[in-house]
């Protein structure tokens, strides 16, 4: 008879089960009300961590850094795979303008606010601002565009924007961190180092992706191709980092080229065809994403610091950042949609400002890297995620009321029939872009 598991181990598995069930319940709540799952997961983490003290923040943070880096790589890889180059070319001008004004404008304004209000040095302020400056999370935006029955042109605009601004934010973050590590005395040397870092990352990511596409085309009928692909993603990150390149950028480029493999058919005589494999990758990733996001946002709540001295200050800063984000989102939307059909949906575009995985991941990575003020970054970022998701949820409810959209229709949009989803995925994979 095997020995009974220790109470600590039993407790861990019990809490893990509760977290997964809570994540599923959060998805149901999202489908019924449009209230983001992230909010309930963060609050659950706060409850079992800082409030009840079931987990220690100090014990969680070291391992959470590795989990955050893994999560970031998954976001970059699948964000790249979901980026349709054809859509970027067709509507890229307006989306690029939206992203440029929103991300660049809000990042600079938030950095100045942190510099003047919190008295952080400029480079720390820029690092923090790059985390929350203009990101929108596809995990909330994409389902809501479908469920609120937004016009196709608006849904495409918001979908492409969520991919581009997340990538832009990540690149800005690692650029500013690179400047911090190399020093700011010699800007020319700093930018040369960063340019070299990015160049190596792009070239290696592209080269390894092309080689893997050719290999996958031969192996796609076999088992475990998904796991093997993930293994190569991690290997790409490792090789690029060891050779002085940006591992994160390599993974992003790897995903973009793999997701748009059909372009190679136009450039070569390879005659690649991987639609069934693309479907399997997409379906499996859906399950993995749910598990990772559920655990990640609960862990984010676990790291939250409840201190009377800082709660009001951090919350006030979170509200100020929200106001900055809304100002630049209004400005960016008015400019980018001017003279187009998108102008009819400006209100919906503006309110689709929910942030999620990217700022949370970058904040935790900054703590793991020991950056100045990183603990404060983490708390304020958590407030910003909650506040922006609340704004998006309220916006979704207002549109539902204006359209007289019933919950049945709303839920049908959030959870379309599987057959429809598979067909759309197959169609997307088959498009040559």
Quick synopsis:
The protein is mainly alpha-helical. The protein has helices spanning 7-33, 37-51, 57-81, 85-117, 122-132, 138-147, 152-182, 187-219, 225-242, 247-259, 262-267, 275-302, 308-337, 346-351, 357-368, 374-403, 407-414, 418-430.
Beta-strand proportion = under 5%
What summary fits the major beta sheet? none
How many beta-strand elements?
0
Mean pLDDT: 79
Structural class determined from secondary elements: mainly alpha
User: What is the string of SSEs from the N terminus onward?
Assistant: HHHHHHHHHHHHHHHHHH
CATH topology: Na+/H+ antiporter like fold
Rg value: 22 Å
CATH class: Mainly Alpha
Examine the secondary-structure arrangement and name the CATH architecture.
Up-down Bundle
Keywords:
single chain, 433 residues, Na+/H+ antiporter like fold, 18 helices, 81% helix, disordered C terminus
Could you explain how this protein is built, in words?
This protein is an all-alpha fold and 433 residues long. The chain has a single domain (7-430), classed as Na+/H+ antiporter like fold, CATH 1.20.1530. The chain is built from 18 helices and no strands. Helix 12 (275-302) packs across helix 18 and helix 13 (308-337) crosses helix 16 (374-403). The protein is globular and about 65 Å long. The N and C termini lie far apart (60 Å). Mean pLDDT is 79; it is low at 417-433.
SSE blueprint and pairings:
Blueprint lengths: L6 H27 L3 H15 L5 H25 L3 H33 L4 H11 L5 H10 L4 H31 L4 H33 L5 H18 L4 H13 L2 H6 L7 H28 L5 H30 L8 H6 L5 H12 L5 H30 L3 H8 L3 H13 L3
Helix pairs in contact: 1-2, 1-12, 2-12, 3-10, 3-12, 3-15, 4-5, 4-7, 4-13, 5-7, 5-15, 6-7, 6-17, 7-8, 8-9, 8-10, 9-10, 12-18, 13-16, 15-16
